[in-house]
Structures are given as structure tokens and as C-alpha cells.
Amino acid sequence: MTTAPLDQIAGFANLRDVAGYRVGSTTVRPYALLRSDAPSSLDDAATAALRDVGLVSVIDLRDEREQQLAPSPFSERGFAVSHLPIFDSSAHALVQPEVGLAPLYRHMVEGCATTLTSAVRTVATSAPGAVLVHCTAGKDRTGITVALALRAIGVSRDDVVANYVMTEARLRGPWLDAQIVRLTAFLGEDRAHEFVDLLVGSPADAIETALDVVEQGSSERTLPYLRAHGMTDDEVTALEERLLG
């Protein structure tokens, strides 16, 4: 298996391995859980590189409209794809710069709990090999899903927040520039630039808000929330066995 840096794989702006975080005497294993933005394309070299790191399963958190605008290239390349749209119409109404990320995240963990839990359950029960979770930017829906999974297996809150916060630096640059061009066509240049923080921002307080709502101070972290929305003890064990070691 190659250990070539994931950020050298073409087509992604925010592809990375969620690995190395300590849990007791062990750590999150390499190439068990990946996270990313939606790839613009998957050429032969990118497909081979993903197979080299063991990628088998993909969880696409985008809604039907997003998938129609930017169809996933994973299926045609032979990866198993699970579509689990997180946003509903009420969540889309909150995607406004005047609202900010923390209220949006609160809405997601309160109003989309079953689907978020389904995403974590799918991470746990997918076929052996690496699992990739992505949305459009790999920031909001992906960030919450990954945070729920990592906290469930005992990764420290500080490490989970740090993993989330690093997203912004990866999205600024060509990815953001392309989004601004797209939004300018619909909203005009001035209004499009008002969305910059919403598009690429990953402030600690946003994911902290989501975790506060989910965990409610529980010593079991995100586990009560996940169990309340359908995750079984066997699936919790499967998640631990997949990610730790």
C-alpha cells in the first residue's frame, strides 16, 4: 500500500486522512476513514492512487440537486457509493452569510440526526477497506459526520476540533475562486463575496456548538445521541474495530 500524500491526488481540494489521533493506548489507524470535498473528476491516476490507499466505499452527503449539478465520478470508477443527503429544505434556508455557521450546525444536529447517524453507521458497517465521507466542500456535513464518529470512539474533543479547523486553509485558493465565479453568475460579485466565510470558514465555535448540542456534557460523548437515532452496540463495536488499531 502506498503512503503517497493524499493532497497530491488530482481532482480534490480537501482530501485527507483522519488518522493518528490517540485514544487510550492506541490511535486512529491510517487509511481507515478519509474525508474530502466532491472531486471535480477522477482520472486514471487519481483512481489508482485511491485504490492504492485501500478505498472501497464512499458516503456522499450531498442532496439530489447537488448530485445533478456535479455527478459523482466514484460509481463509474467502481467504488461503492452510499447517498445520504443531510440537508433538507429548512437547512438550505439557513445557508446565508447573515445566519452564520453555528446556527446552521445546531439545526443539522437537531433536525438531521437520523441521517447523520446513518452516515456514521455506514462508516462502521461498510465493506473492509477505507471509507471516504464527502459533501461539496468536505467541511460542514462532512465535518459534523467525522466529528460524531471520532468522538464516538473516544478521540479527544480538542483533536476533533483541530481536525475540523484545518479545513479552511485547504479551501482557500482555487476551490474558493471557482465557487465565487459560480455564485457571481447568480448573485452578482458583491453578494457572492459575502459568502466567503460561509463557503470556507471552519471556526472552532461552529463545531463546538454542534458537539455541545449533541453531547450535552455526557461522559459517553456522542454515543447517547447516536444510539437514540438508531446506532446499535454492534455497530459501535464495528466502528471501533474499523478505526482503531
UniProtKB/TrEMBL annotation:
Gene3D superfamilies: Protein tyrosine phosphatase superfamily. PROSITE patterns: TYR_PHOSPHATASE_1 (PS00383), TYR_PHOSPHATASE_2 (PS50056). SUPFAM superfamilies: (Phosphotyrosine protein) phosphatases II. GO terms for molecular function: phosphoprotein phosphatase activity. It comes from the Bacteria. Residues 114-161 form the Tyrosine specific protein phosphatases domain. Belongs to the protein-tyrosine phosphatase family. This is Tyrosine-protein phosphatase. It comes from Sanguibacter hominis ATCC BAA-789.
